[in-house]
Specification:
The protein has 14 helices and 26 strands. It is of the alpha/beta class.
Amino acid sequence: MLNITTFLDANACRLAKPVFFCPERNTSYTSADILGIVSGIARTLKSLGVVKGDRVLLYLNSSPEYLFSYLALWRIGAVAVPTNRVYTPSELSYMVENAGAHVFITDADGAAAAKDLGVSVYVPENIEELRTSPVLLPEPTGFDDLCQLQYTSGTTGKPKGAMLTHGNWLAAIHNECDVLTFKQDDIYLGIYPMGHVGLSWGIAAMRAGACYIMMERYDPAAYLSLCKEHGVTVLSGMPPVIHSLVEAPAGTEEMIATVREIISGGGPLHHEIWKKFHYRYNIPVINAYGLSETVVIGTGTVIRPEDYASADRFQSVGHPVCFSEVKIVDEEDASRELPLGTPGEIALRGPAVAKGYWNMPEETARAFLPDGWFLTGDVGYLDKDHRLCLTDRKKDMIVMSGWKIYPTEVEEALLKYPDVAEIAVFGIPHPHRGEIPVAAVVWRTGRDGSDKEAGLLAFAKEHLAGYKVPRKLYTVDSLPRVNGWKLLRRELRETFA
């Protein structure tokens, strides 16, 4: 039997300390508390007719109820379909139909969204009363039994449900505990939305007996206060958060003085931002590379703290984690592996690679190869030390008159211009050249960018090959992101094309 929730049973027998804390409610939970609550929710789900293999939609704000519902579904062998409260009714309807979900876990406010979906609604209530519920034995499951359909963000097309298994999650938790060297006295502060596979870092902390502090929503001031108040040792971040810490006022160093390492994932961390953070705070960035289809670094790569001793150039996402393989292949012919230093499509192979996309055989066949390799759709190269360096998403690459332009490379260069706070480079159609590169810019001092535009373009011409220079600049107040995090280049293309 392999049921991912059995780590709760093991820890409940030996640990009486809190392993999960919700600061918004000032409430903490031991492994035994969680096991009781999970058992209580699981029994209710079974009473609603949920059985092994059934898909169940989760539509909650990040909360204890979200986490415990995940675990309850896994406990009974059901398949969690996590969503985010920012999803529209049409997006929810698509996921319900595509997944074949019949039950919808939500709260009182979210129940209205389910009324036209043709599903049964379950609202977990009074969960504190379930702490002492009798333990429900886990449903026997195998390595390849599904536990989650993780839908992609849809940034490159129709959302696809990555089929994740109990074995995929086991590999992810193992590797995350290994990379972060979690110990029972560690305090992990998590900011990833619970509808995202980044939740795995928090579950890994709980598995190790460390304490996972969950932020229901990211707030910069609360983020720093929690770090100082609780002596956080492992901090979750993402590129925009690390950027904000670089720009934070003097004295921020004291707020995160107990932090041993900070995670970055969800998109490329710009070289200059990473370097500035490192030299200001002297905290190693655990720059990780993985995808929804690999449960983050269940199969992926990472820069570890010890890598800084060999003077990493603040450019790579490191070497493969345990049991993982990485190679670079030709974007048009995946059978052709490319040499070191040559950009191409990143391919991953390992125990956390999803089984494919739910009900999408053609998409599955294109991305999941028969020999176990997964074609990520991302572009990168292996440097001379065999470290993986990201360039861009394959579909974000701009092709102008045969020239290939990688947006992240251009952004790296233009972020060095002092008036630029944030920048996103993307392609728009052109009648003669196919596409041309343009950029949306958030300026440091407001929207009046007329003079700054000329300066930035002159800077670009000085530091980039001519074909890489944006043909037009658009001044914006902010960049569109998924959950304030993953850049939506598609939305920019739709707005300015």
